[in-house]
Each structure stands twice: as C-alpha cells, then as structure tokens.
Amino acid sequence: MTRAEFDWEKSIVWNGPGTIEGVQDTLAGDRLDRARYAEFLTDYLATEGKQRNYVLNLNAEWGAGKTWFIKRWYMELKQHYPTVYIDAWQQDFSDDPLLTVISSIIEQLRDAAGNKLAVPDGIKFKLLGLLKVGGKLVLKSAIKKAGLEDGDFSMEGEDADKLVDTLCSNHKERYESIQYLKQEIRQWVEAAVSANLDQLDGQGRLNYPAFILIDELDRCRPSYAVEMLETIKHIFDIKDVVFVLATDTEQLQHAIKVIYGEGFDAQTYLGRFFKRRFYLNKCPSHFLIEEFVADRFELLCSKTFHCFSDANDFSKTLARIVDAYHLSAREIESFLDNLFAILHSVSERSIDIIYLSALLIMHTKIPAAYIALRSGGKLLDAEIDKINVNKDNVFSFKSKAELSIVINYWSDVKSGRNEKVILKNDNFYAYIMQVHRILSGYYLSGDNNPNNINGLTIIRSDGRYDDNGRYYIACLQNKLLTNDDYIELVELSTLLL
Q1: What DSSP line would sit under 449-474, residue for residue?
Q2: Which one of 10, 86, 307, 430 counts the least CB within 10 Å of its CB?
Q3: C-alpha to C-alpha distance for 161 and 365, rounded to whole angstroms
Q4: pTM greater than 0.90
C-alpha cells in the first residue's frame, strides 16, 4: 500500500485547483492533530477503494476546519494517488452540476497523467450531450429539435408525439453520454497511475484508487446542491474511485428540505448516497478566538481596563466565557465581530471586557436574562431565578456560568495609580451580578453597604486584601460608563447582522 507522510506540523501554500496567480492561500499547520484522521481515512479508503467504489460523507459543522482539512488532505493524497478537488460552491453558477463535476475530474486527472494524452474528440461531444437548461427552455429546445414551431405548438396529436420522441431521444443521449464519460474517467485514472511507472522505488508513482474530493456542497443554493447529489450519484460506481463529499450535513439537510418540504426525511435521503459518514470534531473555541485576538491584541488591550499577559491569556479568558454558554463556531464569529465593533468606539481602558462579553452572549443566547439585566431593579435575582426554572437549565444563566476567574486589571488610571490588581472570583454569575449593581449605581446610595458583596476578592499590588469589593467599585465608577451605556453599545453592535 502507498504510504503518505502526514507531517502537517508546518503551514503550506495551497496550489490546488482554483489557485489564483499572485494570491497566496496559506494552510496553517496542524494544531489539533487532524493529520491522524487523514492518515486513518487514507489507509481505510485506499484499501476499500481497490475492492469496490466507495462514497464517504465527511461531516463537520461550520467553523470546524472542514475546508482546511480537505485541502491539506488533498495536498497529501495527490502525491500518491490520482486526486481531484472540486469546490462545489465556487461552481454553483453552473446549470448542470454533473457537467461541472465530470469536466473537473477529466481536467485534473489529465494533469495527473502529465498531459501526455490528448482529450479525445468523443469526450468533447459527450460533454456537450450533457448540457441542459431548465424549465421552459428545455421544452423550447425539444420543440425546435422536433422540427416544430414554438408559436404553433399543440400538446395534442402529432405535435405531442414528436415532442415525446424528441424528449426520449434527449434522455437516451444523456444516459449514453454519462456511460461513455464514466468509461473515460476510468481510463484517465489508469493513465494517471501508468504515467510514471518508469520511476524507481515508486517515487513519483501514483497508485489506485483515485480520490474525488467535493467540498462546500452545503453552501450551494439548495436546488444546485440537491441536483448535484441526484446527478453525480450516476458516477459513484466507477471502479477504483473513492468519492469524499465534505459537508455540514445538518445544513445540507436544511437545503434538501427547502426543495422537498419541511416534513421530508432528509437524513434518510442522504443515507442513500453515502456508505459511511466520518465526523470531524469541532475546533475548540480557544483556537477560533486566538487567531482573532492575535491580530487585534494591541487594540483590544488598550480598550479594556483588565490587563492580559499576552494574546493567549486574553483568548483563554474569552474562551471560558463562550464555552460556558456553548456557542457554536458561527456564534463565536458573530460575537467577536460585535465585540470588536464596540471596542472601536470606546475610550481607552474604559470597558469591563468580561461583563460586556456576557451581555453580548446573553443578548443572543438568553434574551430573557439579557432583558432582566437591561431592566435591572431590586427584583433582579428573582427574575433570574424564574429564567432558570423556565429554561430547565438548558441555557441557564446561573448553572452555565459557574466558572472561577482570575483577572488582572488596571486599578485607577485617572488618579495616576496605574498599578495592576488581581481580582479573584469563584462564581462568574456572582461577578456579573455585582458588576451590574456597580454600573447601575446601586452602591452610590448610603443604604446599600458593599460589605455584603460576595466573591470579589481584591489583592492589591502591595499585598493588601480588599474582601468587600470597595476597590473594584471605585475603579468601575471612575470609568464613567453606566449599565445603560453598556446596553446601548451591545444593541448598536447587534444591528450588524
């Protein structure tokens, strides 16, 4: 069996199909040990693909690194097997997905064979035989081919007979074209494998099976995605060829239901096409956030009065918050975009990044809790308790936010005591509630004693402790931002859909 190296530690430059001259697409190094998945799949599919045709669904949710994985895998596979990569989304402008797939396969296999063989004229004619258009244009084309006039056409008698004969002839031609092109694909695979047989020790030689990797099908318009599945199934049975369709299968099921109706069993429908599914685990939130923070670390740090040792420290803090509320990759991206938009518009060292992040997440994930914090009032705790009961703790504001936090922050920029202070808190929920009270002016009244604050332990740079939170209250109040200001910033940013 041909063995690939699967050393994905370093980043590489993508030079596969769709590469634009002068534009460099860098595929980052493997930080999640995904190479072992590729190695496992290659060993399995290389063995199975020699015994029979094989169709695999590589399933991963949006943001899990599906395209990165399939491209890195392609770069590995093409050194050892005839390999084709097709970005379905980039080609969904086409009216005929089967034509798109077959022409891409033939073109790339010809490259793998070293362009030593000319494309037979028969292929060109058969590809033309696959061309089709939709709706009324199909009917008009058939009417014209039958020798009839569109304006005088009748659905009865001799006209109808001629049209039926023509449509049947078109269908037969299309079927024959598909069968012919399947044979041609098989021959191009053989040509690619035979191209470098003179190489010693297998260096530069390709082996069976061929791999056809189709990416981004779930991002295509629903009609195109369904038609691609329905048409390319006709070439799934080519000997010594493995098809891998990389999709967010849940999103693909939604696309199918757009075509066939909400009650349609899309999961069973997809099961007709694939022999197996392989699930690519989602990317940890820390990695998704780290890239965002690393590119903007200086700005992010300049706007929050919390201070972080580096981008990794900042990323981990945000990751713990988003993990508490189980944000998806798409939700994390939206959260980060909104956060960045807010920080662009505020003064330096004015924002409590923890409280702001919590508000942004609750605005989307737990609107009832957000509304409670927006409204405030003496009955806030009681309102939050109601939310927890009603939600059965699925997205509970309390139970999903029980994480301890240690935050360094700048104590008081205004007075010039620009010292770092450590805030220790054992309950994220308690922290958010106390910050809400501070920003709402709760402790400005002499009737409300801050000595009853729990969970806010301050360690000053001189080693002194402040267990009642007075120091933090003064720090937040000096920023001159109220809870209403935070709410306004959140709601302005969430207008960015």
Answers
A1: -GGG--S-EEE-TTS-EETT-HHHHH
A2: 10
A3: 60
A4: no
